[in-house]
Amino acid sequence: MEPVTHQQKNEAIAGFPFEGILVSENPYGSGHINDTFLLVFDLGDDEEVKVILQRMNKDVFADPEALMENIVGVTSYLRKKIEENGGDPDRETLNVIPAGDGKSYYKDSQGDYWRAYKFITDATSYDKVEKPEDFYQSAVAFGNFQCLLADYPAHELHETIKDFHNTKARFQAFKKAVEEDVMGRAASVKKEIDFVLQHEDVADYLCDLLEKKEIPLRVTHNDTKLNNIMIDDKTGKGICVIDLDTVMPGLAIHDFGDSIRFGASTAAEDEQDLSKVSCSMELFELYTRGFIEGCAGKLTDREIELLPMGAKTMTFECGMRFLTDYLQGDTYFKIHREGHNLDRCRTQFKLVEDMENKWYTMNEIVKKLKDN
Which domain of life does this protein belong to (predicted)? Predict the structure, then answer.
């Protein structure tokens, strides 16, 4: 997408009925997809109000109107549940500010879509785990997200990115990329290709269980990283799940698994020294405890038993996607060096192997926490 111009931003600001006098507007956050700004308005009498304004990336999200329909549906439902539980709906869920025409978005003269949220004060989102407690708090928050939305009709949500965690479909896309070999890279990564082909059962497993209705379709977040949780500055507790662009129908086990893939790894996602890469059982146990606690009995016994499989599946899927992109010429994931996607793929596959070596331990941890 073209960079946001000052004129375009001013048009967007005028498209919303914000109160007060605008005193500052600055880029905000570390997200790579949407353009995000923090606006501060002076209300007089030493009072101010903060607002988040975002231009949605229509290259990534082809149907911003459907996306906003999802977000309004889910946040309105969360607000009602939080009020019923005696919580603070202004801080515990995102609150969409409607545009001047009452819609949940503003479409500017360039055809770009904008949205606005109330800013959540006295809370911070962290890009990396600074202390284990933060990882635990994110687990409780993502579990609570599942708990609050357990009765939401997931099938009514739009799929904002088609087949996002359809591992079966990802496997077929991978095989096609190997076959076409547009960059002539397949011969040099035979070991990695063989690893994927040997794990076809992992690609099929959870998809097959969903098809057989052995596990339920749920509202899922699909980007369960620590920085999508707001942690209260005073209490240190996770209070709000943010970045709801990829909220769609899916598996709770996938949400759990993506957190483990990213947060319980002992190395960076693109670590080149694979001897540093492993899945920490301490962090796995910490997150599992928090997630089960947050879900508060809303997951089925079968879903809880399958949590290790969720971790393995999501790690495998991610590695397979990095390898697919490498074979196709690095067109999806941004790279910062030659072979970057290959390094990323290798860390994921090393994590999968490590999980397989610790499979008994992972399952025993889940069994112990489930029975407590």
Answer: Bacteria
